[in-house]
Amino acid sequence: NQENAAKNLQETLSVKDTSIKDLEATVERLKSLKSEDQEDLKSNLARSETEKVALKHDFEMQANDLKKIHEKQLSDLKSKLDKEVATRNEVEESIKNNEIEMET
Question: How far apart are alpha carbons 95 and 79 in whole angstroms?
């Protein structure tokens, strides 16, 4: 009976030892996965930062382009207005001259 009890105890210890080794292996796998996840997160963060910088640069370029377009449109409108004012002044001067000629 003592031999059977010793044998059973030995088998139980062997099973527990195997279970402990399995648990240790699982812990190592989890640590490895955690490390891989952290590396993935770092990589994703770096990629996001790069994309953010690129988007900011694109936005600034588009804003500059729009500013140049609006400045050109404003300049064109000012030139057109100046021409119309000059034409109006010429017409008014011509009308005054015609009125003076009609009086004389």
Answer: 24
Burial of residue 13 (number of CB atoms within 10 Å: 0-12, 13-18, 19+): exposed
pTM over 0.70? The answer is no
CA-CA distances (angstroms) from residue 46 to 31, 50, 57, 76, 92?
A: 23, 6, 17, 45, 68
State the Cα–Cα distance between residues 101 and 13, nearest whole angstrom: 129
DSSP states along 14-51: HHHHHHHHHHHHHHHHHHHHHHHHHHHHHHHHHHHHHH
> Phi-psi bin for 6: left (phi > 0), alpha (psi -120 to 50), beta?
alpha
What are the pLDDT tens digits along the chain (104 aa)?
888 888 888 888 888 888 999 999 999 988 888 888 899 999 999 999 999 999 999 999 999 999 999 999 999 999 999 999 999 999 999 999 999 888 86
